[in-house]
Design a protein that fits this description.
The structure holds two protein chains of two kinds.
Chain A lengths: L6 H9 E4 L5 E4 L2 E4 L5 H10 L9 E4 L16 H17 L2 E3 L9 H8 L7 E4 L13 E4 L2 H10 L1 E4 L3 E8 L8 H12 L7 E6 L1 H5 L2 H9 L8 E3 L4 H7 L8 H13 L10 E6 L6 E3 L7 E3 L12 H14 L14 E4 L7 H11 L9 E4 L4 H9 L2 H8 L2 E2 L20 E4 L15 E4 L2 H10 L15
Parallel strand pairs in A: 3-4, 3-6, 4-5, 6-7, 9-10, 9-12, 10-11, 15-16, 15-18, 16-17, 18-19
Antiparallel strand pairs in A: 1-2, 2-8, 13-14
Helix pairs in contact in A: 2-5, 6-8, 12-14, 12-15
Chain B lengths: L10 E4 L1 E3 L7 H4 L19 H6 L15 E3 L12 H9 L3 E4 L4 H10 L2 E4 L2 H13 L5 E4 L4 E4 L2 E4 L4 H9 L4 H6 L2 H10 L12
Parallel strand pairs in B: 2-3, 3-4, 4-5
Antiparallel strand pairs in B: 1-6, 6-7, 7-8
Helix pairs in contact in B: 3-4
The chains are: A alpha/beta, B alpha/beta.
Chain lengths: ~475, ~200
C-alpha cells in the first residue's frame, strides 16, 4: 500500500511517544530554542518542582528580543533588560544549556540563528517560546511556537501534549513578476485567507513559486504562517534545502550528510499525498503588497486603493473603521503616497543577507528622504559580517540609514528601538498591531525590505518597481 | 509558579465584561514593554494598558465591571505573539474564563495550561449575552464545562471547546508536566528510534 501521508503527518507519526488520556499526542521534540523573554518563568517552574532539563544537548539559547542594537555595553542601560540577560545566563549555566550570548558571533535572532547554524533540518520537530518559530518550517519539518508553560514541559521532558492539526496545501502557481518578493506572497495569502483563516491547520506551501524560492525566501513565507492563523507552515525538502545545509556547523558531515540528505528527501509529500484542504493562487496576481490596517490581513497591492466601506462584508466593517481611524487613513485612498516617518529593515521575517541585498539594491546611490529616520538591523552577527564584507553597510550608511548590531529591534518594542508618538513606519517586520513597534499610538505599514527602502528614499509608500532599473529586477 | 493539579474546573461562575471585537491580539492584551520581567507578577494591572489609555470608555476602565471573571469577545481572540504573559495578565486581573467566537491556537493552549476556560459560542449569542451584561453588570454567568452550556438568568446557550482541553479542565489535569514526565521510558525509546538523533544510522521513517 502506498504511503499517502503528507510530510507533516509523517514527521508527526515519527515523533509520537504515545497517546495521552486526553486524546492528545505526546510528541518528542528534536530541538528546543530558547530566548530571554519566555524562558525565565519556565526555568523557575523546573526549580519549583526540583526538575532538571532532560536533554540539555537538544536545547540552544540565544538573546535577541531585549538587547540594544546600538550600545551593547553591560550592564545595559535598561535595568529590566539587564535583569533578563542575567537570568538567562544564570539559567543556562545552572541547567547545562548552551547560550550564544553577545560575545559569541553566532548570536542573533533565534529564527535566523537556527537555520544559519544548520540546526534547523528537514524531518525534525522544533519548538520555541515565540510564535515566529514557524520560520523553521521552510526546511520541511514541524516547527511550532509555544507558551511558557510548554517551554517548561519541553525543558523537563523534551515532549509536548498536542492536538494534531489538519493540513492545508497552499499552492502558488506560475511566476512572480519583477519586484515581487516572498514577503508579498505571504502578505497576499494572508490577505486572501484572512488572519484567522489558518486556525486549526498547518500549511504546506507548494507549487512552482515556492519550488523556485531560495531557503531565505522560504523562511520569510513560513515565518508569517502564524499571522494567517496557521499553527505552522512548511515547504517540502528538495535539492535547494540539501544544498543550503551542506557544510553548515551543525549539519551532518561526510557520508553521514549523504545518508541524511536521502532521508530528508524521502519525507516530502508525494504526488498523491492527502490533504484536508487545498487552495491555489496565481503568482501573476501578486503585486508588491502593503498593509494599511492593524492586522497583517489588512493589505492591498501597491497600485490599489484602500477598501471602500460599502464594498466590505458587513461583519468586517467595524474592524475596518477601527483600523482606518487608528491609522488616520481614508477608505478608498491610494496606498501609494502615504507618508512615512520611519523605515525599519530587520526582524525574523526579513533580516537575512538576501533581504539586505535587495534593500541595498534600492538604496544604492540614493538618499533617505529628509525627516525619515531609517535603520537596518541584521538578523545575526554573521549576517552583519557578511553584509559588511559585501559593502552593504556602506551603501546603507551613505544613503542615510543607521547600521546596527543584530537583534529583534523595532519589530516589537522590548528594546530601545521604538516608534514615538504617532510616527508611521514602513517596516519589513511581521506585525502591524496597535502599539506593536513601541509607541502605543505608533503606526506600521508592513512590506518587503525593498519596498521599505523605496519608501525611505521617497518619504512615502512607493512602488519599488518604479525605482529599480529594469535590468536589475 | 506551579498551578495546583487538584483544582478541577467544572464550572466558572462570575460577572461578565464585554469586549466584543474581532482579532484582539496579545500585544493589545499585554503590551510588549511589560514583558521585560522574569516573573509574571504584577501583569494583571497592565491588562489592555494601551487600549485603556486611548479609550476612556474601555470596559477595563469601567468600575461597572470591577471583579468581572468572564470576558466576552469576538473572532480570533488572542492572535499574534505566543506570550503566556497575555493569559497571565488576564488571570491576574481576575479573568477565569473567556467566551469568544474563536481563539488563536497558541493563546488557547496557554489558557488551558493555566486553568482558564476558553470557550467558543455563536456570535449572535455572545452579542446577546454582552447586551445583557451591559444592561446589568451584576448578572451572574455560569459556564458549565460538564454540560457545555453558558447560562445567565433566563439566557442560555451552548458552548464548545476541544474535547482534550475540556477533559483536562474538568478532571483538573491541565498541568500536563507530571503526565508527560511519567512516560520517561517511552520518551527515551522514541528518541532512540529517530534517525537524526542517531547519526542517521537507523532507517526509521
Amino acid at each position: 500500500m502506498s504511503d499517502r501521508r503528507n510530510l507533516f503527518n509523517r514527521v508527526w507519526d515519527l515523533h509520537t511517544v504515545r497517546t495521552l488520556p486526553s486524546g492528545q499526542s505526546q510528541l518528542f521534540i528534536g530541538w528546543h530554542l530558547i530566548h530571554e523573554v519566555t524562558s525565565p518563568q519556565a526555568f523557575q517552574m523546573l526549580r519549583d518542582r526540583g526538575l532538571k532539563v532532560m536533554f540539555p544537548e537538544r536545547t540552544l539559547a540565544t538573546v535577541d528580543h531585549i538587547i540594544p542594537t546600538d550600545n551593547q555595553a553591560r550592564p545595559f542601560v535598561d535595568g529590566l533588560a539587564e535583569e533578563m540577560m542575567s537570568a538567562i545566563e544564570k539559567n543556562c549555566r545552572e541547567f547545562g544549556v548552551q547560550l550564544l550570548d553577545l560575545n559569541d558571533d553566532r548570536q542573533g535572532i533565534v529564527h535566523v540563528v537556527g537555520p544559519e547554524q544548520g540546526l534547523t533540518q528537514p524531518g525534525i520537530t522544533l519548538v520555541c517560546g515565540d510564535s515566529h518559530t514557524s520560520t523553521h518550517g521552510a526546511f520541511g519539518n514541524i516547527s511550532l511556537g509555544i507558551g511558557t508553560s510548554q517551554v517548561a514541559h519541553v525543558l523537563a521532558t523534551q515532549t509536548l501534549a498536542l492536538n494534531r492539526p489538519k493540513v492545508r496545501r497552499v499552492c502558488v502557481t506560475g511566476e512572480l513578476g519583477p519586484g515581487v518578493f516572498a514577503k508579498d506572497v505571504t502578505l497576499h495569502v494572508i490577505r486572501k485567507l484572512g488572519v484567522q483563516g489558518g486556525v486549526g491547520y498547518a500549511y504546506e506551501y507548494a507549487g512552482p513559486v515556492f519550488d523556485r524560492m531560495t531557503m531565505e525566501e522560504r523562511m520569510t513565507v513560513c515565518n508569517m504562517s502564524i499571522e494567517g492563523g496557521a499553527r505552522c507552515g512548511y515547504i517540502n525538502p528538495d535539492e535547494t534545502t540539501v544544498e543550503y545545509l551542506r557544510g553548515r556547523p551543525l549539519s551532518p558531515a561526510g557520508e553521514e550528510f549523504e545518508r541524511a540528505a536521502q532521508w530528508w528527501l524521502s519525507l516530502a509529500s508525494g504526488p498523491d499525498a492527502e490533504f484536508d484542504d487545498e487552495v491555489t493562487f496565481a503568482g501573476e496576481d501578486i503585486e508588491p503588497t502593503v498593509t494599511w490596517g492593524i492586522n497583517p490581513g489588512q493589505s492591498v497591492g501597491v497600485t490599489e486603493s484602500l477598501p471602500q466601506l460599502d464594498s466590505c462584508p458587513a461583519d468586517e466593517r467595524k474592524g475596518i473603521e477601527e483600523a482606518l481611524a487608528f491609522m488616520e487613513l481614508n477608505a478608498g485612498q491610494p496606498v501609494r503616497g502615504v507618508p512615512i516617518d520611519v523605515a525599519f529593515i530587520g526582524s525574523c521575517t526579513n533580516s537575512r543577507i538576501s533581504d539586505l541585498r535587495e534593500a541595498a539594491a534600492v538604496a544604492r546611490g540614493r538618499k533617505v528622504a529628509p525627516n525619515v529616520r531609517a535603520l537596518v538591523v541584521p538578523g545575526s552577527q554573521l549576517v552583519r559580517k557578511q553584509a559588511q564584507a559585501e559593502g552593504l553597510d556602506e551603501i546603507f550608511r551613505e544613503a542615510g540609514f543607521d547600521w546596527r548590531e543584530a537583534g529583534c529591534s523595532m519589530c516589537l518594542a522590548m528594546n530601545p528601538d521604538r516608534l514615538s508618538g504617532r510616527e508611521m513606519c514602513a517596516s519589513s517586520s511581521n506585525r502591524n498591531f496597535k502599539g506593536r513597534q513601541g509607541s502605543p499610538t505608533g503606526r506600521t505599514l508592513l512590506m518587503s525590505p525593498a519596498m521599505v527602502a523605496a519608501a525611505a528614499i521617497n518619504g512615502h509608500v512607493t512602488d519599488v518597481r518604479d525605482i529599480l532599473e529594469p535590468a536589475t529586477v | 509558579m506551579a498551578e495546583p493539579t487538584d483544582s478541577r474546573v467544572e464550572q466558572v461562575r462570575g460577572t461578565g465584561i464585554p469586549l466584543v471585537l474581532d482579532d484582539i491580539d496579545t500585544d493589545r492584551i499585554i503590551p510588549a514593554r511589560f514583558l521585560r520581567c522574569v516573573t509574571f507578577d504584577g501583569l494583571g494591572e497592565h491588562a489592555f494598558e494601551d487600549d485603556r489609555q486611548q479609550d476612556p470608555a474601555h470596559p477595563f476602565n469601567s468600575a461597572r465591571y470591577d471583579g468581572a471573571g468572564i470576558l466576552l469577545s469576538g473572532r480570533n481572540f488572542g492572535c499574534g505573539s505566543s506570550r503566556e504573559h497575555a493569559p497571565q495578565a488576564l488571570m491576574r486581573h481576575g479573568v477565569r474564563a473567556v467566551v469568544a467566537e474563536s481563539f488563536a491556537e497558541i493563546f488557547f493552549g496557554n489558557c488551558t495550561s493555566l486553568g482558564i476556560a476558553a470557550v467558543c459560542a455563536a456570535r449572535d449569542q455572545i452579542e446577546q449575552l454582552a447586551a445583557l451584561v451591559e444592561a446589568d453588570p451584576t448578572l451572574e454567568i455560569t459556564i458549565d464545562l460538564t454540560t457545555s452550556t453558558i447560562q445567565a438568568g433566563d439566557f442560555s446557550c451552548p458552548c464548545t471547546m476541544p474535547e482534550s482541553a475540556r477533559v483536562a479542565l474538568v478532571t483538573g489535569e491541565y498541568d500536563f508536566l507530571a503526565q508527560l514526565l511519567s512516560a520517561e521510558g517511552d520518551i527515551r525509546n522514541t528518541a532512540g528510534s529517530i534517525a537524526y538523533l542517531n547519526q542517521f544510522s537507523g532507517s526509521s521513517n
